[in-house]
Each structure stands twice: as structure tokens, then as C-alpha cells.
Inverse folding.
């Protein structure tokens, strides 16, 4: 027999992570991590397009992206490779 448990947060949303004691909203975290991943010579990014794409994502998707990207950036740093463009 299976059981499904639903935990309601009543609008609390996802937990906000703190970086060095400073609360960092998920949109800011995703933007910061993507900025760290881009090479210095990357072309310009459309602010309107980026905001539209970020706004279209669910908070849980942004949190998952930020978590995966943070792990990837740590791995790149440990292995001393550039995050983007990724080598085949």
C-alpha cells in the first residue's frame, strides 16, 4: 500500500539561502551563478530576454538549476577547466 504525503507551506515558498549571512533570493542566485559560468569574452545577453526566461521558470526549477550549476562550477574549479564553453 502506498501513501502520498502533502506538505503545505501556505505561501512560504522555497527556503531562501544565505550567502555569508546575506539573504540571496533565488533569482539573484541563478543570475550570479550564470555570470560566474560565462567566459569573460562572452557576447552580450539581452536583459529583457533573460528576465523573461527567468520569470517563466518555477521557483523549484530555479532552485534546482542553481544547485546543479553551483555543483558544476565547483567541479570545474577543482579540475581546473573553464565552465563554458564546455569541452566535448
Amino acid at each position: 500500500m502506498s501513501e502520498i504525503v502533502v506538505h503545505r507551506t501556505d505561501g512560504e515558498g522555497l527556503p531562501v539561502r544565505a550567502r555569508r549571512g546575506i539573504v540571496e533570493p533565488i533569482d539573484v542566485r541563478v543570475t550570479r551563478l550564470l555570470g560566474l559560468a560565462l567566459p569573460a569574452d562572452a557576447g552580450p545577453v539581452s536583459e529583457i530576454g533573460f528576465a523573461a526566461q527567468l520569470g517563466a521558470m518555477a521557483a523549484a526549477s530555479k532552485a534546482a538549476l542553481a544547485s546543479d550549476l553551483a555543483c558544476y562550477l565547483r567541479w570545474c574549479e577543482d579540475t581546473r577547466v573553464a565552465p563554458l564553453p564546455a569541452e566535448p
About this structure: Residues 17-79 form one domain. The longest strand covers residues 17-19. The beta strands are 17-19, 22-24. The two ends are 45 Å apart (CA to CA).
